[in-house]
Amino acid sequence: MHNLIIAIFCSVAVSVLLKIAHKKNIIIEQAIAFNYIIAISLSYFLLKPDFKGLAFTDYIIQSEHSPIFLALGFLLPTVFIIMSKAVEYAGIVRSDAAQRLSLFLPIIAAFVIFGEQITQSKTIGIILAFLALLCLLAKPTDAMKDNSFKAIIGLILVWFGYGIIDILFKQVAKMGGAFPTTLFIAFAISACVMFIYLLLKRTQWTTPSVLGGILLGALNFMNILFYIKAHQSFSSDPTLVFAGMNIGVICFGTITGALIFKEKLSKINGVGIVLGILSIISLFYLDKLMA
């Protein structure tokens, strides 16, 4: 449980950093790019990836896990770029809703791909989780931008992209001792993709963006690492982690927004927080209480 709590805390900390980035003259895309350099470094020194005596490129070609780290390497930065476009065309509220409601995909995967057993407590917890999400995301909607087609496509890709990333992280958690190497390579590929993207945009690097990227990289690395560790702790119950992470992040994020940024909470948002807490209790503890 503590791994999931640390992952939730780090995820919300990342959101807070991204929220204040503009005021600190941090260019988000540059910070994201440099964040992967920090993530690569932390992966190398803390997780000690093992390439089994092969050269880096040879390992990528020969590893049985290459589809996973290649997919993650391209998806992590690509979905971020898509998210930024979705916010531009569809607004932040709709984009955030698409990201959080992507929970639907990993929940389906938990039962179809990972063979998790459906229980009464999980069914109740999942229903409460989706009700909580709908209540927590019930905010005044941003006006849709002029190009509604781009907005719709962006929201669909955000929903699909974040759902697939969650499923891939569960696959990484199942690798056991091979997950440090997979994570290292995924970050390396992500860095290449992001730097190529910025090179094509001919971005002008700024010091605040690089410094912001250092902090972002540390938080993002911890978020992903402990999210994977949470999956390893609950290896037979991926639903607990998928739902617990999403509900925990949005509940804690909503409370943080209200306390730090003075964001207004509606009554239905308050109901969402209560439902979120009940969902987590149901997912993690209802079976024990009923035993």
Automatic annotation (TrEMBL):
Keywords: Membrane, Transmembrane, Transmembrane helix. It comes from the Bacteria. The chain crosses the membrane at residues 28-47, 68-91, 97-115, 122-139, 151-169, 181-200, 206-228, 240-261, 267-286. This is EamA-like transporter family protein. It comes from Bisgaardia hudsonensis.
